[in-house]
Specification:
The chain is α/β, with parallel strands linked by helices. It is built from six helices and six strands; from the N terminus they run H-H-E-E-H-E-H-E-H-E-E-H. The longest helix is centred in the first third of the chain and has 38 residues.
């Protein structure tokens, strides 16, 4: 092989390597750019015109909750990225409405079928819980990520999403969180089991819709 052939072969190899590198970068970078654009341009406001839950506009930055694991160690923000989350903030007393919402979170996740892999369940505990509730959560919701948080911080962060005339507390609600860490929708709890099931379809419909609109996650 002469020198010109060697140079040509080398150039071809370099171009192929560059193309492969650019393609790999695009696969990971483009979804992030799209998600960021959707968040900053108010896409949720437009997409939420037919939403069934309460739209949070502007969305709330999820990182502000400063969640910790059950050993009170900080959880890196990156752990929550690239996944859609159904988040429930447990109130001081986990009554029938609380338990209905937790069951609703689990059933909604199951009802997603093949899309389950894109969504995860998140339980936020802004206060100490007793042994009975701790055991019940472990037994009934083994797939959910349980976290702790400071109650004052949770209330301060989520309060802008609440209508003060209707909601006295930010706890006791289900929230939807997107792959870029935006809390963009919330749903109240219902003490009546049948009402919870009926209204729970709203959560499922909204989640199915955003998953269809965005292939990120």
């Amino acid at each position: 092989m002469d020198m010109s052939q060697t140079v040509t072969t080398g150039n071809t190899t370099n171009r192929s390597n560059r193309k492969a590198l650019l393609l790999t970068a695009a696969i990971f970078i483009i979804p992030v750019i799209v998600a960021y654009t959707l968040l900053k341009t108010g896409w949720y406001s437009a997409a939420g015109t037919s939403n069934r839950g309460a739209l949070i506009d502007p969305p709330i930055e999820f990182d502000q909750l400063a969640l910790r694991d059950m050993q009170r160690q900080p959880i890196p923000a990156e752990q929550f990225r690239k996944t859609w989350w159904i988040m429930y903030v447990v109130p001081d007393v986990c009554d029938s409405a609380c338990r209905n919402s937790l069951y609703l979170m689990r059933q909604t996740h199951h009802a997603l079928g093949p899309e389950q892999r894109r969504v995860a369940e998140l339980i936020v505990l802004p206060h100490q819980i007793d042994a009975e509730l701790e055991q019940w959560l472990k037994q009934e919701f083994p797939a959910a990520l349980q976290t702790t948080a400071d109650a004052a911080v949770v209330n301060q962060v989520l309060q802008p999403a609440m209508n003060a005339a209707e909601h006295a507390s930010t706890a006791g609600h289900l929230y939807l969180v997107d792959t870029m860490g935006a809390i963009f929708m919330h749903y109240p709890s219902y003490a009546d089991e049948q009402e919870s099931i009926l209204k729970g379809r709203n959560l499922l419909k909204d989640l199915q819709r955003v998953l269809k609109l965005s292939k990120i996650g």
